[in-house]
Specification:
The chain has about 575 residues and is an alpha+beta fold. Helices cover about 25% and strands about 25% of the residues. The longest helix has about 35 residues. It comes from Bos indicus x Bos taurus.
């Protein structure tokens, strides 16, 4: 089959406007075209081939005709591609053709070369993608640094930062001369403060930390961690300051309501039981569940308005005194018997009201009149000895080890006595106190809290109370404005409860050791606390109870503590 040039192509090749170089190139292409009849016939420069037999012609017809047809189609395609390209480039300006030669090179004769050039960046990108992350990071570190276009003189001037007018910066000053620091020095100082607070540079802040095999193991552990659910964050062991998470529970004595004043509220030292006693002559025991608090038992004492009731250290007995009687009642919880103690040998007090039980359960301390403190044996209820202070006894308490007695007088003085020798170890004036009203010691033997008539609670260190003649309080709590009648430390020595029976809602919870008051207690809008006369914490600080003059034993659940 003979290929013919279309008329449009003849008109194109005969175009007089075509440049002479392109016209010569087109003529050469036309001359080099191989006609199919010459290839199929005889060879160039040789005699004609001998005709083959009919069977041979049939067998050889397809192998000879196939390459001829393919070559003709390829030549026709190249010719049409060249014609189209020349038509497109004919109208291009010289500037555009020059730009193409600069970008793509002179590839008019060989378009495959252009395709190969365009294919090189793709291969390069693929090779770059195979590089490791470490090599990429190393290449990024050595990128060429560009020079700035201009330099500003003001940038070279070192700007100074004022350290005096900012309270956070003022704490970072090492001496008075550092009233101003440069930005670089301030940044360095901030880094030092951060590292001091963190105990060094944390792992996540270390620069140029390369990946190690242990990192792969940690990643596998993290993957395992993410494959299961659960509570992975445990609560802090120490109580945070600011806001105390708590919930208002059902009143402890809800199953035995009364309108008489609650004089004593105390949790049992070993069982989940709370005792409520008041001026209605009854001592009641309730099971603590925070919801209904079912009543266990009530003990009625005829004509005996209870001034104070207290569990023994082992929780087997309940001791109670009245507002106008010298009888001391002892209720044996195991035997279920009520034992009245009418007279203590050697004790001449007409009325027995305020008393304290030592933490180890060995001693009973009775506050007498005329400044006397009477020490009794808890087991036999017999008098061991007496101690005398100047003035009236306002309050007394044992130390956590039961070896010392702290007594607050009506003159604003604090006395420290030794239990075994019954000698006065120290005596000091409670700072700012005209006369004392309450005193308490912490379970860990660290603090002594003294409440005065002016609403101030001074917190002392127990060691300073023993060794110094004029100890200074660690902190003075001034959140109350009337006399502090009740003081109670929680078992973990993280909370100090202070209250005044002379003003409604006058109760506060102080966080230790920050000595700050929890801001969310009491809730001022509700005003359901009223006048508080007694307070206590459960053995593991899970509950907090208060008794008011309306006959209600309020109870709260402290969520920070998981146990009763």
């Amino acid at each position: 089959m003979r290929s013919e040039i279309p008329r449009e192509g003849l008109r194109f090749f005969s175009n007089p406007k075509m440049p002479p170089e392109r016209r010569r190139r087109v003529r050469q292409d036309r001359k080099t075209q191989v006609r199919p009849d010459r290839r199929a016939g005889a060879q160039r420069g040789g005699p004609p081939r001998k005709a083959a037999s009919s069977c041979q012609q049939k067998s050889l017809a397809w192998p000879r005709a196939a390459p001829a047809a393919i070559s003709v189609e390829a030549e026709e395609e190249n010719r049409l591609r060249l014609r189209n390209r020349l038509m497109l480039e004919e109208d291009k300006p010289a500037a555009e053709r020059c730009l193409e030669e600069l970008v793509f090179g002179d590839v008019e004769d060989d378009e495959d070369a252009l395709l190969r050039r365009l294919r090189v960046p793709l291969v390069q990108v693929q090779e770059d993608s195979d590089d490791s992350e470490v090599e990429k990071e190393a290449k990024d570190n050595f990128l060429p640094q560009k020079k700035p276009v201009w330099l500003d003189e003001e940038d070279e001037d070192e700007e100074m930062v004022d350290m005096m007018n900012n309270r956070f910066r003022k704490d970072m000053m090492k001496n008075a001369s550092e009233n101003q620091l440069s930005k670089d020095e301030l940044q360095k100082r901030l880094k030092e403060e951060f590292q001091h607070a963190m105990g060094g540079v944390p792992a996540w802040a270390e620069a140029n930390k390369w990946k190690t095999p242990s990192d792969d193991e940690s990643e596998e552990e993290e993957d395992d961690l993410l494959q299961r659910t659960g509570n992975f964050i445990s609560t802090s062991t120490s109580l945070p300051k600011g806001i105390l998470k708590m919930k208002n529970c059902q009143h402890a004595n809800a199953e035995r309501p009364t309108t008489a004043r609650i004089s004593s509220v105390q949790f049992h030292p070993r069982a989940q039981v709370v005792m409520v006693a008041g001026l209605d002559n009854a001592v009641s025991l309730f099971q603590v569940d925070g919801k209904t608090n079912p009543k266990i038992q009530s003990i009625y004492l005829e004509k005996f308005p209870i001034f104070k009731a207290c569990f023994s250290a082992n929780g087997e007995e309940v001791l109670a005194t009245s507002t106008h009687s010298k009888i001391l009642y002892v209720y044996d919880m195991l035997a279920g018997k009520l034992i009245p103690v009418h007279q203590v040998r050697g004790l001449k007090e007409k009325i027995v009201r305020s008393f304290e039980i030592s933490p180890d359960g060995s001693f009973l301390l009775i506050n007498g009149v005329a400044g006397y403190l009477h020490l009794l044996s808890m087991k036999t209820k017999e008098l061991i000895g007496s101690m005398k202070i100047n003035g009236r006894i306002a309050a007394s308490t044992f130390s956590s080890d039961s070896k010392k007695v702290y007594a607050s007088s009506g003159d604003g003085e604090v006395y420290v006595w030794d239990v075994n020798s019954r000698k006065c170890l120290n005596r000091f004036v409670d700072e700012g106190s005209l006369y004392g009203l309450s005193i308490a010691t912490s379970r860990n033997g660290q603090y002594v809290a003294c409440g005065s008539n002016c609403g101030v609670v001074n917190i002392y260190n127990q060691d300073s109370c023993l060794q110094e003649t004029n100890p200074k309080p660690i902190k003075a709590i001034m959140n109350l404005v009337t006399g502090v009648t009740s003081l109670t430390f929680n078992p973990t020595t993280e909370i100090l409860a202070i209250a005044s029976a002379n003003m409604k809602e006058a109760v506060r919870l102080v966080h230790l050791p920050s000595f700050t008051v929890f801001s969310n207690f009491p809730v001022v809008k509700k005003k359901n606390i009223s006048l508080i006369h007694t307070m206590d914490f459960s053995p593991r600080s899970g509950y907090f109870a208060l008794g008011n003059e309306k006959g209600k034993a309020l109870m709260y659940r402290l969520h920070h503590y998981s146990d009763f």
